[in-house]
Amino acid sequence: VAIGYHNLAVVQLKLQLPDLACKNSQNARRLARLCLSYSNRYIHVFQFTHEIAIADIKWELARKRAEELTAEQLQFIKDLSESLFSPSSEVEAAEA
């Protein structure tokens, strides 16, 4: 399932949908960490794809002013920020 999320993220990057790609690459990383060992060879590939998706989002946001963003884009940014910077993420809690 993690590989499926990753492949979907790669397709979405190709289609220039970085917000959806970021969500799916994050799901791939989360599932891989929960179900596979950290030494699994796919973890680094999932991480690389996630970094590319975030870089695409940064580039897209740098081109726009806040007034030009849709409500859906603003909500996505809020959700992503909360999940990235939460003191106790779901992954860390499951590993403990």
Give a structural overview.
The chain has 96 residues and is mostly helical. 77% of the residues lie in helices and 0% in strands. The chain is built from five helices and no strands. The protein has helices spanning 2-14, 18-35, 42-63, 71-85, 90-95. α1 runs antiparallel to α2 (18-35), α1 runs parallel beside α3 and α2 (18-35) runs antiparallel to α3. The longest helix has 22 residues, at 42-63.
Structure class: mainly alpha
Helical content (DSSP H or I, runs of 4+): over 70%
Detail the poorly predicted runs. 91-96
Radius of gyration from the alpha-carbon trace, in angstroms = 14 Å
Percentage of residues in strands: under 5%
Mean pLDDT: 78
Characterize the main sheet: none
Figure out the total of helices.
5
Instruction: Describe the global form.
Output: elongated
- Would you report the number of β strands? 0
N-to-C SSE string, H for helix and E for strand: HHHHH
How far is the first residue's CA from the last residue's CA? 23 Å
Short description:
The chain has helices at 2-14, 18-35, 42-63, 71-85, 90-95. With 96 residues, the protein is an all-alpha fold. α1 (2-14) packs antiparallel against α2 (18-35) and α2 (18-35) packs antiparallel against α3.
